[in-house]
Amino acid sequence: MKRFRFIAALALALTVSLSLSAKPKIRIIATGGTIAGVSATSASSAYTAGQVGIQTLIDAVPQILQLADISGEQLVNIGSQDMNDEVWLKLAKRINQLLNEEGYDGVVITHGTDTMEETAYFLNLTVKSDKPVILAGSMRPSNAISADGPANLYNAVAAAVSPACKGMGVLCCMNNQLLDAKTVIKTHTIDCDTFEGGPSGIIGYIYNGEAFILQTPNNKHTINSEFDVTKLDRLPKVGIVYGYANCSPLPMQAFVDARFDGIVLAGVGDGNFYKDVFEVAEKAQASGIQIVRSSRCPTGPTCLNSEVDDAKYHFVAALNLNPQKARVLLMLALTKTHDWQEIQKFFMEY
Ligand code: ASP
Questions:
Q1: How far is the CA of 109 from the centre of ligand 1 (A)?
Q2: Global confidence as pTM
Q3: Has 34 been annotated as catalytic?
């Protein structure tokens, strides 16, 4: 009996000490981008994105092995200019599996910076977990002098293991900063300091491998999102039309002729249409193609019923979403409803 108690106590002590010393289980999903890019020489600006694999990325930053129990997988290896709905659906489903079925504590996604904000927002609406999901990329290819990828990856893993990043929705980790999926925007074509958090600013930052949070996103996301991609193998077709002086109605008409499910206007000013484009949009909306008005202005909301009478035409105002994120929300909204008022409500909540 004594012997049994001793063995039981030993087993318990071992389990406790193991669980105390166990590092968080983090999976890195690689999708390509400049962080996996290679240039002809370390000083050259000409390079190809999505060249090196996940293991090379992990091997370049051995310090992450001290932060977490790291494993990696390669989902695709593309420049994020080639990101598409199919990869988004695969990615969201895989993350849900890792976090909800396979016992992972967080996920880091390496991704190109061109469309990182769109992927982040898509995942923010479709991941069903409050565990950290962090996107990281780089502006300089992996073999460049002073490549920014390794530090961004290290910081992203630091964010993924941090309890402070739980419940914050999907975050991007670039240039020591944490940015939230709804407001993050790529602002510069080539600088490392390219991502900004819009008027509300960044969500937090990483310093010495620790995450510091400055504010909490107040829109609905992840576990509070009603969008569910589990059973989806395609998304509704939504295109974006850019507004400008003397604007041609042809691109809008082309989407209508191709029977797209929705069209987002990157309008001038407060989401305004050129008159010829407006005529096409009015008919498209009446025929069941949902029009969402957003703006080509880098800051400020696209307001409901301002210069355009949305209530009369049943257009939806994108409010604080830029055109590319309005497209993401409209695609997901159209998986639930075709009622313009319901869709407007989604734009108010998400
Ligand atoms: N074109 C690249 C991409 O988005 C740029 C980058 O990663 O910085 O994949």
A1: 14
A2: 0.93
A3: yes
